[in-house]
Amino acid sequence: MSTTKSETEALVPKFKFERQLNQDQAGRRTSLLGTIDSRPALLILERAPFPTSPDYLTSISASLATLKNLGANDIYHWYIASSGPVANPDEDYSSPFADLKINLIYPCTEQHVKKYSKQGVRFVLETPEIYRDRVRPFMAAKREEGRLNWVFNIIEGRKEQEDVIHRTAYGEDPADEGFLLLPDLNWDRETLEALHLLGIVERRDIWSLRDLRKRHVPWLRHMRDKFLEAATGVYPDIERDQLKLYVHYQPTYYHFHIHIVHVQLEAGATQAVGKAVGLESIIEQLEGMAGDDEAGMDAVTLGYTLGEASELWTEVFEPLKRKSASGTASRPQ
C-alpha cells in the first residue's frame, strides 16, 4: 500500500524509543529500537554533513548554545559544544546537548592551513637513501624550529596536566621507561568504542619508527604492556584485547608516540594503510632482520601517502619526482 509524503514524514515523530542497539562511526551514527503505533520499528540516525552555505558557516561559531573547554596547550584548544537545544522528555523544556567536538588552532600558521585544506594525495616510496639524505635532514629542521614545544610542555609538566590521565613521575623512572597517556584531540572522551589515546614517551632519542632498532624490541614490548596496563586501568570497562596500538609514518610531529585505540573505532584516514603501522608488525619486522642489534627500520623502504600541500611533498618528493622525470627524458632511446 502506497503512502503519501506527508504520511511518511509523520512516522518519525511517532517513534517511541525502547533501547539503543548500536553506535558506530565514532559515535556519529546510532541504531535505535522502538515502536510506531505499537509495531516494532528500527530508527537509524546519522549526522548529516555540515552545510556549505556561507550564511551558515559565518554564523555557526557565534550561534552555539553552549561551549565547554576540554583543554589547551600552546596554540591548540579543544571543546565540546551544543549547536542547539534538545527536547527533554522528563521536563517541560529543552536543554542543551553537546553534539559538536571542536578543535581550535590559534594563532594558526600557513602550514596548518595547507594541512587542513582539500588537496590531492600522492603515494611515495621512501628508500633508505632518500630517508638518510633528504627526509632525516627535513625532520631535524622541523625539530629545530620549535615545533615540539607543546609536546615538551606536556612531558615536563608545564601544560595540559589536567588532561594527562596517567603518567610516570617525570624524570624518576629510567629514562627509557618514562611515559604519559592522554586523550587524542579528536576523541570526545566519552564514547569508549571511539577511544583514542596517545602514549608519549619521555625519551627524546627516538624521533620516529625510523630510529627503532633490534635492540629496542624488549623496550617496545615493555612499553606496549605499560600502555595497555595504564589504558585498561583508567578505563576498566575495556579489556586488553579490545585495544590496538600503532604508530604513524610520517608522524605529525617528530617525537616518538604510540596511538592506542579501541578495536571498534572505524579506520579513518589516521588508521589507513600508508599512514598507520601496527606496533606488533614493527616488533616482528625488527626481530626478523638480519644483522646485529643495530639493524633497524632506517634500512627498509617505506611507502606512505602525502598531501600535495605538505612540506615533505613540496620540499622533498616533488623535486625528486621532477628530477627523475627529467633524467628519464634525457636518456637516449
From TrEMBL:
Query: Could you name the Gene Ontology cellular component terms for this entry?
Result: nucleus; P-body
Instruction: Kindly give the Gene3D superfamilies that the UniProt entry links to this protein.
Output: HIT-like, Scavenger mRNA decapping enzyme, N-terminal domain
What are the protein's GO molecular function terms? hydrolase activity; RNA 7-methylguanosine cap binding
Q: Which residues are catalytic?
A: 257 (nucleophile)
Pfam families in UniProt: DcpS (PF05652), DcpS_C (PF11969)
Which terms under GO biological process does the entry name? Answer: deadenylation-dependent decapping of nuclear-transcribed mRNA
Transmembrane residues, as ranges? none
Q: Which family does it belong to?
A: Belongs to the HIT family.
**PANTHER family reported for this sequence:** HISTIDINE TRIAD HIT PROTEIN MEMBER, M7GPPPX DIPHOSPHATASE
Q: From the Swiss-Prot or TrEMBL record, give the protein name.
A: Scavenger mRNA decapping enzyme
In which organism is this protein found?
Coniochaeta hoffmannii
